[in-house]
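Before relying on records like the one below, remember that each one covers exactly one chain. Contacts with other chains, cofactors or solvent are not represented anywhere in the record.
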Amino acid sequence: MLAKPEPPEGSATSEIAAGLNARYGGLAPQDIIRVAVENEFAGAVGAVSSFGADSAVLLHMLAEVDPTVPVVFLDTGQHFGETLAYRDALAVDFGLRDLRVIHPDETALAAVDPDGMLHMTDTDTCCAVRKVEPMARAVAPFRAWFTGRKRFQAATRNGLQPFEPVGPRIRINPLAAWGTAELAAYMREKALRENPLVAYGYLSIGCFPCTQPVAAGADARSGRWAGQAKTECGIHLSGLEQSLTDASL
């Protein structure tokens, strides 16, 4: 049995990401997925999905390339029931063979959020224990992982590249350049199931206490942590990188 390749050190990862963007950054999303799964990270790549508003697009593309690629879902304990049902339905629709449901560490959760109400006073710590730490554990086995992030979703994602260095690993964003028109067209063409919350104006779907419908004309993530300066939960920011490089992982 071949040994799993070790991820490169952080400094080298930036160079690797730059090289991957130069070679493959202009490819169609399906081709970026294929080259990552079959060539660059064969046997060492996974995907992370929120099973949110447009998650079906990436998951359908991935399943067409290889439905055995692991798909990670972070069950924070505070998801909408509709999201959990949608997760299970898409897994069946696409024949996903390795859906991994990851939960927060029970000891850490009991210490900082024993009554499940931390989101009312400290959203950053709530996200750290319910999302960032579990995410770091979830992607630790991989050399790279896919996300469904796009540049149009928020100002913080304007410069999003298809390949990004995160600690010693590579995060792959095949849909980075796609907009709402491309996503809608793909959903229609492939007749993909839509998260039922979209019909009620939820265009970016996270935990139910911190998610609300988006106002007309507002960016897709404006319904997340509305009224706060917070725009990201942290799994795409430096906190995850620090967790990924922690010696305990």
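The first helix runs from residue 10 to 24.
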